């Protein structure tokens, strides 16, 4: 398993420019500490560099809900091994919705989709605080987005779980 934590956008591109593929990697956790907007596509680029990843977990500290964004996703990419995709801290952000749609289209063996709407807060390296009881309005919005926009588009072979 590999956990990557990117406090800024620049570090993602540096990792991808100066590294070989993550050959043999089966599980990956990406911790997103900033509001990335269109740069969320770097999640797909990191996944592309790790073609054997079966489980992708995102921990997201999102803040704002933006209007729909025009994100340029990587071309000629299929996550041929991705079976499980989970996200902690989903708040209904537009770029995360688009990431879900992109991965649903490009992950032919995806079986499990987990969306956790609890607010997560970064504490320090490798430590996150999950706030399930706080931010009720945010969680309600995130669940509504997940149930009305994401769930109806999930293929029947994929088991979605919205918390």
UniProtKB/TrEMBL annotation:
InterPro entries xrefs: At1g61320/At1g61330-like (IPR053772), LRR_At1g61320_AtMIF1 (IPR055357)
Protein name as it appears in the record: At1g61320/AtMIF1 LRR domain-containing protein
Species of the source: Dichanthelium oligosanthes
Cited PANTHER family: F-BOX DOMAIN-CONTAINING PROTEIN (PTHR34145:SF28), OS02G0105600 PROTEIN (PTHR34145)
Domain At1g61320/AtMIF1 LRR: 15-159
């Amino acid at each position: 398993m590999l956990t990557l934590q990117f406090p800024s956008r620049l570090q993602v591109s540096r990792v991808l420019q100066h590294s070989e593929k993550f050959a043999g990697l089966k599980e990956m956790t990406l911790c997103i500490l900033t509001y990335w907007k269109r740069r969320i596509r770097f999640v797909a680029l990191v996944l592309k560099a790790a073609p054997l990843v079966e489980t992708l977990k995102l921990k997201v500290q999102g803040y704002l809900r933006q209007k729909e964004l025009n994100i340029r996703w990587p071309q000629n990419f299929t996550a041929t091994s991705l079976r499980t995709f989970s996200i902690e801290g989903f708040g209904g952000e537009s770029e995360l919705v688009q990431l879900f749609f992109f991965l649903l289209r490009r992950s032919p063996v995806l079986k499990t989709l987990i969306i956790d709407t609890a607010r997560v807060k970064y504490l320090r390296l490798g430590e996150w605080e999950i706030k399930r009881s706080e931010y009720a309005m945010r969680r309600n919005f995130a669940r509504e987005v997940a149930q009305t926009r994401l769930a109806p588009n999930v293929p029947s072979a994929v088991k979605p779980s919205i918390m």
